[in-house]
Every structure is written in structure tokens, then in C-alpha cells.
Write a structure and sequence with these properties.
The chain has a single domain (8-94), classed as Recoverin, domain 1. The protein has three helices and two strands; from the N terminus they run αααββ. It has helices at 25-36, 44-53, 63-71; strands at 78-79, 85-86. The longest helix is centred in the first third of the chain and has 12 residues, at 25-36. The two termini are 12 Å apart.
Length: 96
Amino acid sequence: MYKNRVRTIEFFKDYDKLRSGIITENQFICGLSLAIGKEAQLSRQEIQKITEFYRTPDGRVQYKEFSDMMENGMFPFLRNNSDDIVDTTINLNTLI
């Protein structure tokens, strides 16, 4: 484990028996809640935006891609309701 970092992949991989990097939306939300807990203070809307960003066409979620971004200390830019780009970079040092 990295100092002051959350290894998010650890919270998802038990759901992924085939190690495909993809899990259901409910599994992703549960893993995300466990990984960041109350520390990040994400609203339901923010969790939904993250889920939508990593959702596959069949409705599952690419947790491996999300975890890779978190490991690098960066989170991709998302669009808000007005289609403006919102910087959602998370400083992982503040999570712990």
C-alpha cells in the first residue's frame, strides 16, 4: 500500500471472480463506498457521475480503469449538467 493512498482495486476485485476488470453497477457503488467511505464526502449525484463515466454499453462498470486512474492520483474530467467540463481531480492525500 502506498503511503497516504487508497488502493481502490482491493475493494472491487472480490466481486470480479474472472478478473475481467468489469463488475455490476451495484458492486461498483458498494466497492466505491468502502474504498473512500466518508472521507471524500461524495454526494449520490457525484457517485452516479463516476459510475456513468466508467459504465460499459451493457450496463456494467469498468472498475479496473477507475482504480488505475485513482492509483495515479488523478481522476478524469467530467461534464456537469450544462455540459461544462468540471475538474474532479482528487488529492488522495486528503482521503487519509
